[in-house]
User: Which sequence fits this backbone?
């Protein structure tokens, strides 16, 4: 089997492992009240596609069809590029949400310490809604999106650089 097919397939597998790890990390790091299943869906589907494309690339390389292997590597690079764009586009809004949460939490803690508000889950939820903020910390989301964007951008560049020559 030519190394021209093996190298991009290995990159796809490493990329899939990184995505899976980031997805499971975000899932386990998510605080109560968040929707951590989205992190798994957003990472495991592209990871599965990457593994599938790696297998196809290896099979085509073994059969000596380097033009077809080049096409599957290109598709994998495009998947990584789309994922980088999708995750990267969510970073700024997620950072804004994190900032609003931090400001609202500071005001909530101050009002509770001054005993100017009732300390109940419903009052807390209503207060955070009035501040246009989530009632849970979203730092895990910002970090996961940064990791997904970085891994995807790196995988995209590496895959384009290692496409089999025909």
Assistant:
């Amino acid at each position: 089997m030519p190394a021209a097919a093996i190298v991009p397939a290995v990159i796809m597998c490493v990329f899939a492992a990184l995505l899976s790890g980031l997805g499971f990390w975000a899932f386990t790091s998510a605080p109560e009240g968040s929707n951590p299943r989205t992190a798994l869906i957003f990472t495991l589907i592209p990871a599965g596609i990457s593994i599938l494309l790696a297998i196809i690339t290896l099979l085509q390389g073994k059969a000596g069809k380097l033009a077809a292997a080049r096409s599957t590597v290109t598709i994998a690079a495009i998947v990584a590029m789309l994922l980088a764009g999708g995750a990267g586009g969510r970073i700024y809004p997620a950072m804004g949400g994190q900032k609003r949460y931090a400001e609202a939490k500071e005001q909530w803690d101050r009002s509770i310490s001054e005993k100017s508000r009732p300390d109940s889950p419903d009052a807390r939820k209503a207060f955070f809604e009035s501040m246009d903020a989530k009632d849970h910390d979203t730092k895990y989301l910002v970090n996961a999106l940064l990791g997904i964007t970085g891994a995807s951008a790196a995988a995209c560049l590496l895959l384009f650089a290692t496409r089999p020559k025909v």
